[in-house]
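tmp note - GDSL-type esterase/lipase family protein
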Amino acid sequence: MAQVSIVTSQAAGVIRDDDAMRFTFVGDSMTIGCAGDFTWRYRMWQHLDATLGAPFAIVGPRSELYDTGAGGPVSYEYGAPDFPAGARTHLAGWGEGWLHMAPVIADAVAAHGTDVLLVSLGLIDLGFYTDSGQTALNARAFIAAARTANPHVKMVLMPVIPNVRAESDAPFAAECDRFNELLAKAVADLDDPMSPVLLASRPPGYDIHEDTYDGTHPGPTGEHALAAAFADAMHQAWGLGGPYTPRP
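out:
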């Protein structure tokens, strides 16, 4: 008989009728992807499917890709036809950052019974909305809010990977570096055995001129690199899955 568990919060609740581990991808334009993209979310789904060895689900309130022609998240044209519809869900948005996700993460975790959050945010905040100090405070608020919905939620946070703008904008590059320092401090401060928080490593050798198609958004090699950073962090720290092995 399937295990039954209940996750509740002040805002919403979900009744679970299975024991599947539930992952939610949270991010900005690098995570939602554009029409025709495979996305690093697809690469991560492949990895979990091949290595986890236990039931799992990808959950979240959205499933669309961003359509540059339409100027909005209205596409479902993923580059991988074998990406199951149920695994395409996420909480990611073009132009959204910690500022936008902190107020909505509790409802998303509660509504979908999330066990593990894989989070890649910050570049858009620093580029358009908040300085490094305020962005770090928003990241701390995000962590606190997620725990109100599930006190045992696990989180893996990706540091900001500076994009092509940082090559010609020294103050922006400095803010990226400063935020990553503050994010590492937040992880050290807020990590808890009941609700562990990991800081993933920047993918080794990641080159914005080779691994992205425009200096920001990952192409196929970049998608694998981002998925590997999350996968290897979970495997090394928690024993989840296995070492990342990219598929063609």
